[in-house]
Amino acid sequence: MHISKYLKDKTFLGALVFWLIATISYFQFVAMGYALSPIAVDGLESLLTFYIPVLVLTVFLLLYLTRKRPPVKWDKLYAVSKTTANKEAWLSVGYLLLTQMILGLGFDLGLHFPGTDIYSTGSHSQTDVLIWAVTYTITYTVLPLLWLRSRGFSLKKLFSSLQWIRDLWIIVAYWALDFFGPILAGATDFIGGITASQYAQGVPLGIFVNALGAGLPVVVMMHMIFIPRVAILVKNKLTVILLGGLFYSVFSVFDQGVDYSTLDIGLTSFAYVVMTQTLVGMGKATFTVVTGNPFIHFITLHIVSARVPFDTRMYIEIFKLK
Length: 322
What we know:
Elements: H1 3-7, H2 10-31, H3 43-65, H4 74-78, H5 85-107, H6 126-150, H7 155-161, H8 168-184, H9 196-233, H10 237-251, H11 263-291, H12 296-300, H13 307-318
Transmembrane segments: 12-36, 48-67, 88-109, 129-148, 168-187, 207-226, 238-254
Keywords: Membrane, Transmembrane, Transmembrane helix
């Protein structure tokens, strides 16, 4: 699609303006000397060295490489009706906002464990992990799947329609990028001080727990409910991807390191999350938009990739693995 067509797309422009306002606000807050939460430190460096490269590689490059693919049949794969899609998409946004406010403000539970807290050795227990995983599983996987089933959606039909072999190159290439990237950049503590036995136990345990608490909730809420309903209404792929990114940023408003204890630090936290996590969410959304497969992002840009080097040591310590 030509740039001129994007400029005529009011939905795209509205979403882009919202992101730009959040981004400009973040830098304005920093310039004004607002207090920064742990997550919001070094925003410019993070944006330039990580988030924008993610945007380029996972959105624009992947859209280009898959430009000749036929459109996804969202109505058949996800039992989406065009007459109710708009209402249902907004319903998913409202449900996510409401539940995030309750879980985040009321219980400090966020998409990734340990929520708004910063993990340190001994700071969290196995019970804390269990509460988070069970709460998020029920709220964002079980209940939404029951709702989807009532709308005629079939997991069996979806699985039988996915083209894993066709998309294998995407899975392998982007998994390697997201798994090894943080390690090579020195952004994780995955290497060193962990025994082979601890790796053997900690990696699958971390994947399992994170799948329950973070991976499957995003798969269901964003990739099975929100994106198919937006995609059946909006033919512009980039608009769908941008809206998906904003949806994911809502999922991240109570992520590790945010702080809403005061107005100024809360504003920087929120602006930073929208600025950065929208771009990550756009990457996640692209995998589903170009393949129709809601699980590819789970492997390539979430639970089985970057979360492994980031979270393995934490789970080894919490579960006292030997």
